[in-house]
Amino acid sequence: ILNVEQSPQSLHVQEGDSTNFTCSFPSSNFYALHWYRWETAKSPKALFVMTLNGDEKKKGRISATLNTKEGYSYLYIKGSQPEDSATYLCAFKASGTYKYIFGTGTRLKVLA
Amino acid sequence: DTAVSQTPKYLVTQMGNDKSIKCEQNLGHDTMYWYKQDSKKFLKIMFSYNNKELIINETVPNRFSPKSPDKAHLNLHINSLELGDSAVYFCASSRTSVGTDTQYFGPGTRLTVL
Question: Which 3 state secondary structure label does DSSP give B66?
Answer without folding.
Answer: strand
